[in-house]
């Protein structure tokens, strides 16, 4: 799961994750999507860009 | 907020302001330095999160307590002024 | 000299304004107060009745804590300052419940609050992705507290200021070196040599590259020490206007408390 807030500035970033993931999968430029979603500072952008989603990988191992 | 006067002479005072930090102390120091009666005004915080700041004031002979009281009043006036102009600015 | 406020941009969550005729200490006071001294509500205690999701209880509690909750500063007080003396009355605590079963994504909007004024500021913050058969049932208790205790109580996000830049050009020979060097592309050649027009000066980051590249030292970069360009952002617990007003009020209360104590000595 993407951390709720940006580690550095505290802005809530996790609410843009699903839209970001979907739009990038459809072939949009990640930078343009982030600008459009209002994630403008580089501290917040790295939260999303560097995120690796593990929920689906972990799900079978309860 | 709690105050502890560590030592006080006629023109000097060490005042510990328990429960406060740089937010108030830096403003207080700056307000004190604007006062003509004040010769030295400074504060020390040993550690940012676990210590309480100690304010040191040296005046030209005026009562340090009165001087700090006036500085606190000046900060209150500054805040009133800021809140006033800010509220007028956002009403537009 | 009286203070002046000039609003450049203002929306629900963010603001940009110029504060002039104020001291650096005052500007810093407003910045610090909005980051750490304006209290907000955030989930602090979580009673977990069932959690079979992929996240540990602690991780789940952290995610819940970081969700901004809409707060009315008049209605709530931090537990330590409450008249109930730490017994946790409705003036210092709000309880929220969450109960969900997979497969589905649980959002902050699924939190059911016992107080209608207290809701998640963003309804679409993902809390946990529940798979088939996974369940989460919990009660979360929100308390009011300060940003310096934990980042979850931080009402202001990325609040900062810079001094108003002053860039002057004298005897410019129009070589254009500063125009090319400026990382913000705000310098251009006008009728009387290089210039920065209108509000472009607000974009200046005071890097002084224009001054260093000028061979005839025609450019001087300085700053107005009494004027500040503020950028403030709120996490959603307050509107940004309320946040700034609350910051001013917080400092005022601190200073008047100090005055009162000294008066009573």
From TrEMBL, chain A:
> Which cellular components does GO assign to this protein?
cytoplasm; DNA-directed RNA polymerase complex
Q: How is the cofactor bound?
A: Binds 1 zinc ion.
Chain positions recorded as Zn(2+) binding sites: 6, 9, 43-44
Subcellular locations according to the entry: Cytoplasm
Which family would the database say this protein is a member of? Belongs to the archaeal Rpo10/eukaryotic RPB10 RNA polymerase subunit family.
Q: What does this protein do?
A: DNA-dependent RNA polymerase (RNAP) catalyzes the transcription of DNA into RNA using the four ribonucleoside triphosphates as substrates.
Q: Tell me the protein's name.
A: DNA-directed RNA polymerase subunit Rpo10
What gene is it encoded by? Answer: rpo10
From TrEMBL, chain B:
In this chain the DNA-directed RNA polymerase RBP11-like dimerisation domain maps to: 13-83
Q: Which reaction does it catalyse?
A: RNA(n) + a ribonucleoside 5'-triphosphate = RNA(n+1) + diphosphate
For biological process, the GO terms are: DNA-templated transcription
Q: Name one GO cellular component term.
A: DNA-directed RNA polymerase complex
Give the top-rank taxon of the lineage listed in the UniProt record for this protein: Archaea
What EC number(s) is this enzyme filed under?
A: 2.7.7.6
Q: Say yes or no: keyword Cytoplasm present.
A: yes
Q: Where in the cell is it found?
A: Cytoplasm
Indicate whether Cytoplasm appears among the record's keywords.
yes
Question: Which parts of the chain span the membrane according to its record?
Answer: none
Q: Name one Pfam family in it.
A: RNA_pol_L_2
* PROSITE patterns, per the entry: RNA_POL_L_13KD (PS01154)
Q: Which InterPro entries match?
A: RBP11-like, RBP11-like_dimer, RNA_pol_Rpb11_13-16kDa_CS, Rpo11-like
Q: Name one GO molecular function term.
A: DNA-directed RNA polymerase activity
* Keywords from the named record: Cytoplasm, DNA-directed RNA polymerase, Nucleotidyltransferase, Transcription, Transferase
Tell me which Gene3D superfamilies the record gives.
Answer: RNA polymerase, RBP11-like subunit (3.30.1360.10)
Q: Could you give the subunit structure recorded for this chain?
A: Part of the RNA polymerase complex.
The record's comment on protein family reads:
Belongs to the archaeal Rpo11/eukaryotic RPB11/RPC19 RNA polymerase subunit family.
Biological role stated in the UniProt entry: DNA-dependent RNA polymerase (RNAP) catalyzes the transcription of DNA into RNA using the four ribonucleoside triphosphates as substrates.
Q: NCBIfam families from the entry? A: PRK01146.2-1 (NF002237)
Q: What is this protein called?
A: DNA-directed RNA polymerase subunit Rpo11
Q: Which organism is it from?
A: Methanolobus vulcani
Taxonomy of origin reads:
Archaea, Methanobacteriati, Methanobacteriota, Stenosarchaea group, Methanomicrobia
UniProtKB/TrEMBL annotation, chain C:
Q: What is its main location?
A: cytoplasm
The record's free-text note on cofactor binding: Binds 1 [3Fe-4S] cluster.
Q: What is its EC number?
A: 2.7.7.6
Which top class of enzyme applies to this chain?
A: transferase
Q: Reaction catalysed?
A: RNA(n) + a ribonucleoside 5'-triphosphate = RNA(n+1) + diphosphate
Binding-site list for [3Fe-4S] cluster: 204, 207, 214
| Cellular location(s) | Cytoplasm
Keyword hit for Cytoplasm: yes
Q: Keyword set for this entry? A: 3Fe-4S, Cytoplasm, DNA-directed RNA polymerase, Iron, Iron-sulfur, Metal-binding, Nucleotidyltransferase, Transcription, Transferase
Taxonomy, superkingdom: Archaea
What sequence ranges are listed for the domain 4Fe-4S ferredoxin-type?
Answer: 163-192, 194-224
State how it assembles. Part of the RNA polymerase complex.
Family assignment?
Belongs to the archaeal Rpo3/eukaryotic RPB3 RNA polymerase subunit family.
Database matches in PANTHER family: DNA-DIRECTED RNA POLYMERASE (PTHR11800), DNA-DIRECTED RNA POLYMERASE II SUBUNIT RPB3 (PTHR11800:SF2)
Functional note: DNA-dependent RNA polymerase (RNAP) catalyzes the transcription of DNA into RNA using the four ribonucleoside triphosphates as substrates.
Q: What is this protein called?
A: DNA-directed RNA polymerase subunit Rpo3
Encoding gene, per UniProt annotation = rpo3
């Amino acid at each position: 799961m993407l951390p709720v807030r940006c580690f550095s500035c505290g802005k809530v970033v996790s609410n843009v994750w699903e839209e970001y993931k979907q739009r990038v999968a459809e072939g949009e430029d990640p930078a343009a999507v982030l600008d459009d979603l209002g994630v403008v500072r580089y501290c917040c952008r790295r939260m999303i860009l560097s995120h690796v989603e593990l929920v689906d990988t972990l799900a079978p191992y309860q | 907020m709690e105050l502890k006067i560590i030592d006080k002479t006629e023109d000097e005072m060490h005042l510990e302001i328990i429960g406060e930090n740089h937010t108030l102390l830096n403003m207080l120091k700056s307000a004190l330095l604007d006062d003509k009666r004040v010769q030295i005004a400074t504060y020390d915080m040993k550690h940012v999160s676990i210590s309480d700041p100690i304010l040191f004031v040296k005046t030209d002979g005026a009562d340090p307590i009165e001087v700090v009281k006036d500085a606190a009043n000046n900060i209150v006036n500054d805040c009133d002024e800021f809140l006033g102009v800010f509220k007028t600015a956002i009403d537009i | 000299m009286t203070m002046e406020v000039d609003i450049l941009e203002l929306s629900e969550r963010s603001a940009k304004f110029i504060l002039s005729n104020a001291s650096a200490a005052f500007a810093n006071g407003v910045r610090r107060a909005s980051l750490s001294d304006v209290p907000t509500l955030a989930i602090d205690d979580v009673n977990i009745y069932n959690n079979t999701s992929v996240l540990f209880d602690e991780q789940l509690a952290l995610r819940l804590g970081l969700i901004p909750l809409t707060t009315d500063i008049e209605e709530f007080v931090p537990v330590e300052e409450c008249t109930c003396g730490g017994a946790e009355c409705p003036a210092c605590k709000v309880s929220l419940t969450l109960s969900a079963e997979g497969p589905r994504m649980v959002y902050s909007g699924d939190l059911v609050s016992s107080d209608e004024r207290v809701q998640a500021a963003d309804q679409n913050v993902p809390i946990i992705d529940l798979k088939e058969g996974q369940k989460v049932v919990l009660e979360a208790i929100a308390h009011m507290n300060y940003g310096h205790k934990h980042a979850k109580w931080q009402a202001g996000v990325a609040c900062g200021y810079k001094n108003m830049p002053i860039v002057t050009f004298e005897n410019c020979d129009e070589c254009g070196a500063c125009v090319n060097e400026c990382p913000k592309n705000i310098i251009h050649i006008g009728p009387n040599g290089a210039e920065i027009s209108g509000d472009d000066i607000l974009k200046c980051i005071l890097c002084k590259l224009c001054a260093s590249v000028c061979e005839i030292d025609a450019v001087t970069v300085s700053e107005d020490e009494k004027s500040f360009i503020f950028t403030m952002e709120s996490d959603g617990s307050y509107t940004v206007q309320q946040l700034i007003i609350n910051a001013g009020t917080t400092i005022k209360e601190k200073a008047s408390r100090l005055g009162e104590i000294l008066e009573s000595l």
